[in-house]
Amino acid sequence: MTRVILEIDTQLYRMLKASAENNQVSLEEECCRRLAGGERRSRYLQALVAELRAEDEQRRANSR
């Protein structure tokens, strides 16, 4: 399994997390919503979504 480590802007991460909580969705769903909504494409958001998906897959595999 390949492990991905991202260096992220803390302020942007907090803003995304707060937005996800306000919209009562997961961080991944908030990122996907922003990407699908035609908002400015962000490589950071795309990488974050990929990392969140990988973590979710790993968590599911470990719970089996």
Write the layout of secondary structure elements.
Elements: H1 10-22, H2 27-36, H3 43-62
Number of strands: 0
Portion in helices: 55-70%
Number of helices: 3
| pLDDT averaged over residues | 80
The largest sheet is:
none
Shape: globular
The rounded Rg comes to 12 Å
End-to-end separation:
17 Å
Number of domains: 1
Helix and strand pattern = HHH
Q: What structural class should be given to the helix and strand makeup?
A: mainly alpha
Poorly predicted tracts of residues: none
Q: How much strand content do the residues show?
A: under 5%
Structure description:
The chain is an all-alpha fold. It has one domain. The chain is built from three helices and no strands. It has helices at 10-22, 27-36, 43-62. The longest helix is centred in the last third of the chain and has 20 residues, at 43-62. It is globular and about 30 Å long. The two termini are 17 Å apart.
State the main characteristics.
single chain; 64 residues; mainly alpha; 3 helices; 0% strand
Short description:
By secondary structure, the chain is an all-alpha fold. It has helices at residues 10-22, 27-36, 43-62. The chain has one domain (10-62).
